[in-house]
Amino acid sequence: MRRSTLAMLYKWVTSVYLLAVVLLCVINFGSISEVPSELFGIRMDHIVHFFMFLPMPLLFFGVYVSSVSVPSLKMMAIIFILCLLLASCTELAQQYLIPWRSGEWSDLAADAAGIFSGCLVCVVCRYVGHNKAFD
Q: How many domains does the chain have?
């Protein structure tokens, strides 16, 4: 696949993903009661937060890699910080702007764990893959 086509694909997928995150942050889930409250002793909403934010650094990194030829660990750190800022904004918006939602520090911690795990996958791919992603 050509680099320009790949870059466009990553941008579209990332845009749809970000739209989905925004929608999930504003939807009122108050009527959902049949979902178990915990899984293996971990609150279900923390598991959802973890997996909701796990793909974010992977997609951002994909957009970056498809646009330039030499990604760096510095860029991965910037992506981590950007993702963490976006997660913080979602929690602040839920706390102060969306009356039917609540922002919690523990949710932000689950978001951060998902973001960190996504970044870790990107870094590990450098060592596992036959093409080195980082220099």
A: 1
Instruction: Residue 76: name the closest of 42, 126, 38 by CA.
Output: 126
At 131 the pLDDT is 53
Q: What is the pLDDT of residues 31-82, one digit of tens each?
A: 666 666 877 888 888 999 999 999 999 999 888 876 665 567 788 899 999 9
47 lies in some domain: yes
pTM of the model: 0.84
> Looking at the domain assignment, is residue 134 inside a domain?
no
- How far is 106 from 99, CA to CA, in rounded Å? 19
CB distance 106 to 46 below 8 Å: yes
Domain of 23, in residue numbers: 3-29+36-128
Buried b (16+ CB within 10 A) or exposed e, 47-56: ebbbebbbbb
Q: Residue 127 pLDDT > 50, yes or no?
A: yes
Give CA angle at 76 (70, 77), nearest 5°.
135
Is 135 part of a structural domain of the chain? no
62, part of any domain: yes
Determine the Cα–Cα distance for residues 16 and 6; give it in Å rounded to an integer.
Answer: 15
